[in-house]
Design a protein that fits this description.
2 copies of one chain form a homodimer. Helices cover about 45% and strands about 10% of the residues of chain A. By secondary structure, chain A is an alpha/beta fold. Chain A folds into 3 domains: about 50 residues, Helicase, Ruva Protein, domain 3; about 90 residues, Dna Topoisomerase Vi A Subunit, Chain: A, domain 2 (3-Layer(aba) Sandwich); about 35 residues, no CATH class. In chain A, the strands form 2 sheets. In chain A, strands 4-3-5-6 form a 4-stranded parallel beta sheet. In chain A, strands 1-2 form a two-stranded antiparallel sheet. In chain A, helix 7 links the parallel strand 5 and strand 6. Chains A, B: Pfam families: RecR_C, RecR_HhH, RecR_ZnF, Toprim_4.
Chain lengths: ~200, ~200
Amino acid sequence: MDFSSKLLEQAVYEMSQLPGIGKRTALRLVLHLLRQNENQTLQLAEALTNLRTGIKFCKNCHNISDTELCEICANPNREASIVCVVEDVRDVMAIENTSQYRGHYHVLGGKISPLDGVGPQDLTIQSLKEKVKSGGVEEVIFALSSTMEGDTTNFYIYRQLEEFGIKTSTIARGIAVGDELEYADEVTLGRSILHRIPFENSLKN
Amino acid sequence: MDFSSKLLEQAVYEMSQLPGIGKRTALRLVLHLLRQNENQTLQLAEALTNLRTGIKFCKNCHNISDTELCEICANPNREASIVCVVEDVRDVMAIENTSQYRGHYHVLGGKISPLDGVGPQDLTIQSLKEKVKSGGVEEVIFALSSTMEGDTTNFYIYRQLEEFGIKTSTIARGIAVGDELEYADEVTLGRSILHRIPFENSLKN
């Protein structure tokens, strides 16, 4: 593309560095900003700068936080003895939205993925190991997405924590509530039969 | 969504103000920036700020430009007597890419669209009228998109320029090069027959 302005070209280039945003979409977004009030652009720029320079991670669970200890870890009503291992802040938000979990989290910051150059040392696994080693943790729940990378990461952490003899569990895989059996994939349906639960338990919720 | 950080929430909110970007996509983009080098975010913020505060519009054609007179208007090899009326800088870029046009442009900054609250006074129509009035313009080419708003805008400008007795034309509508007739819509095909051109003319390019 042949831009009539270096400023425009630079803004479009930087915008198109975002995932899923090509040059054309970037140009559309930037032209939208130009038609809006100047404040909108300045606020966007400021919010991004503030976030990137001021962001903190909870020293206990590594979740994004404005304070040294995140709200969940600082809350005395949450059970510190249960730790749910998740990939990133989106998973924390998703689980919090269910209002079904009262324990702590441990945010890995990714999944082991050799293809993307992400190894165990790039994640917060060592910190989880130390947390368990120092005592007080009774159960670790694996809640990573059910992909090759997720399963690999689960297994790696499982092996790392084996020596401490704590309880480990993984979230249930099965047919989604409201889904029709006939459209479920075989692996999921198969697992949902293998890991069936007593009927009375299903009445509790 | 319940964010663990005000900084994160603010950045996601500002990002989701962009057209076509919802809260979820905004969160994905912002988390992507957090995983990248800090420079990437700062450069994006700076490019947007520079663009919004430093942008100029060519005083002659109203195209985005870093200088008072854009490169096209400042180029003595371009014919100032032909003015192509377009909606925004994207159309200028598209036409420039064809290398088929050697005249000047006039960027309207939008189309007349009562539903969106855009009237003639919001566009650069008055400036076009003055340009024509002051002489030197022989032909005005309408190159707005072929929609209700585009046609309305074309007609409005046409009526405004009528008194000056200059030549007005509109870009040809027809079957795209490489397209099959059987898949063309009836209006386009109908127009392409009504506005047929001498066969020898089609050989020139």
